[in-house]
Amino acid sequence: MSAVLKDALKCHLCSKFFHEPVTLECSHSFCHHCIDGYWSTKVPDTDYTCPTCSRGYPHKPRLTLNMELAAQVKPYTGAAVSTPMQMCEACSVHPASKMCATCDMNYCDKDLQVHKKRNHVIVDLGMCVQELQCREHSEFYKFFCQEDETMVCTICKLMGYHEHHSVITLDQAYENVMKSLHEDTSKRADLIKRVTELEKKYYTRKSELKDLIHQRVQKLDQDREEIIKLVTKITDTKKEELNKQFEEKDSALKKIIFNLNNKKTTLQKDKESMETELRTKEPIIFLLKCKELQQRLKITINGATAEADEADITECCPIDEEDSCTLEGIKCSIWRQLSGQTPTVDENSVHEQLLLSKDLRKVTLTEVSQPYPNQQGRFDSLYHALGAEQLNKERHYWEVDVSQADHCCVGVAAISISRKQKDGACSLGRKSDSWCLEKSNGNLSAWHDGCERPLNVAAIPHRLGLFLDFQKGKLIFCRTDTMMFLHTFQGNFKKQLYPAIELMGSDGSVSFCQM
């Protein structure tokens, strides 16, 4: 550091590096004990002056340690930066504890009591008095303007800017602010409590959600394993069925081949005999044997041709056009295992001419009315019955036996389906609130909203499988013997759905199958 800068860190009175430096309002700095000793020799009733610029101060300036300057001097003196103890300016014996801003003097606790009784402004040591005074009138703040929310002096209140404002004492303002802060603190305490409770709920909910997700992931893994086992089992079963079919048809073909080989051997012998006869040169001998040979060849050829006919081979070993070893068939098998259920008939919906079995799964059309109680939800015009279980889950699969009915409908219906003749009741599938497959005169057809779609099937199955995916709006009908799809309805299911049955004609029965 240059000599000029070092000189700037030295006291003008002792010419040494500052020790506990203090700075006057004129910006000149001195050691605390140097300036204090300098002023102790002044002539009474004269101003306190700056030794450097001679600026006068009517009252003894407050000497506060210049922390920044002390820090700069520390590397040269090695002295710790500390605030010098300020003594009571009344007794000069005890350390000062507070400052009387009204008198601008530091006092110990004993000498401070007189100033408290006089209601002087008491503040902490080292506090700037100007902060407690009105900038305009240099008077201590005595009041608080509620409109501007600021402290004001007596002059401001009586004749200044705040003359006509709502003004209260500082004690009143203090009490009001403290009360408001206490209320805010109480509110914040309540909010902190609520936030803490919500935080606990959050972590509790997070833990529950984590456990739930973990359980569902485990369930998905288990379901995946079950589905893999199920698909493997189904495909293995289908393979065994196909191998069995092949063995049966192969055995039949082997019998045909065996017979054809025998005929082929016979034909070969006859051919050789004929070639031998053709080598005969004598006409009389040839003609004698020719008639017998021609008769025998005619019988052999006719017999071999009939048994070797390709149509006979096709009839003996027909190839099924419908194959259950398709993706659709496997899907139906999986649905049967995972979503299979056994519906029961709703006793309060069944028509009075439908006899309901004790297990509530079979309805039979009779000529005699049953003594059912009169219910608002009972069908009274057509031979309908609804299932008791609502189809409200994601997926459902059930089967219906239609082998004992020549004319019937099976499917699903919304709860809003018309049940009374006066309400325009009609067969299943004739309106938008029902979907069905109709069996009639050896034919099958799909019905919905009055639209019929005939189905091309070689033979009507005894049992029909129904798969409902409520979320995706899909209703699938399939055969239960081959698990082949018969028809698929695609829609948007919004209302509650139930299994539905309808019998037509004069007799017959339909039943929900035990799964």
List keywords for this structure.
515 residues; seven-stranded antiparallel beta sheet; 4 domains; 19% strand; Herpes Virus-1; alpha+beta; single chain; elongated; 9 helices; six-stranded antiparallel beta sheet
Structural features, described:
- This protein has helices at residues 3-8, 32-40, 67-77, 109-117, 154-158, 170-278, 283-307, 310-316, 327-339, and strands at 21-23, 29-31, 48-49, 56-57, 98-100, 105-107, 122-123, 143-145, 150-152, 167-169, 354-356, 362-365, 384-386, 395-401, 407-414, 434-440, 443-448, 451-455, 463-469, 474-479, 485-490, 497-503, 509-512.
- It is an alpha+beta fold and 515 residues long.
- The longest helix is centred in the middle third of the chain and has 109 residues, at 170-278.
- The relative contact order is 0.06.
- β19 (463-469) and β20 form a beta hairpin.
- It folds into four domains: 1-84, Herpes Virus-1, CATH 3.30.40.10; 133-165, no CATH class; 173-316; 327-512, Sandwich (Jelly Rolls).
- The mean pLDDT is 84.
- The strands form six sheets. The chain has a seven-stranded antiparallel β-sheet with strand order 11-12-23-14-19-20-21. A six-stranded antiparallel β-sheet has the order 13-22-15-16-17-18, with no helix packed on it.
- It has nine helices and 23 strands.
- α6 runs antiparallel to α7 (283-307) and α6 (170-278) crosses α9 (327-339).
- The chain is 38% helix and 19% strand.
